Amino acid sequence: MQERGCVFVVQLDEMASNNFVDALSQFHWQVSACASPAELLDRLRTQEVDALVLRGLGKGVPKLISALRRAAPEAPVVWQAPTASARQRVEALEAGVDVFSSERMEPLEWDALLRNVRRRMMPPATDGPAWRLHERTLAGPAGERLPLTANERAFFVRLLSAPGQCLRRDRFFPRNPQEGARSVDVLVSRLRSKARRFDIELPILAVRGWGYILVQHIPGTKSDA
Predict the structure, then answer these.
(1) Residues 132-214, CATH architecture
(2) How is residue 209 annotated by DSSP?
(3) Does the CA dihedral 54-59-62-68 come out positive or negative?
(4) Nearest to 170 by CA among 161, 162, 160, 158
């Protein structure tokens, strides 16, 4: 199961960092520090993330948490604030924070916490298709979890609706004339690159001169589109 991934961190006050980013990176998380809540929200417009960590007290924490829930609805939000009052904790929980910690934790504990919260937020296994969509995420049979853009999700909606069938490139976005065959090829290329960063092998088989097929088991040799 792919438990680790990309984490965005923002420091809200002068709470000692203890090299938090470097320490968590040693556990193979891709950790990126944001200088402010504004930078964090700005980056979420164009970048995918697997978990969000807020550290310390700051102004408008509940408002920030609500904004993060809208910007990255499937990414767990963890807030660490040892000096937060009971009222502040309640407001954060009502705003949608997934985990609150009042304790100072060692990197090993952070690694375990983030892995646990990611596992809990993954969609449960079902008796349906081995690969399935869960809102803006492609979920696989072995716990794979790949965040998708709107166009990527639309692409997989078409594939999942026709398992085992080869779909022509021009059939993926029939209502958008700007999305031609070349655009679909570019989209698939970017999807494959993203999936490699998550150690995921996509269930997509390219058929030369035609289109793409959703398969449950990727053959050892892939055709080029």
Answers:
(1) Orthogonal Bundle (1.10)
(2) T
(3) negative
(4) 158
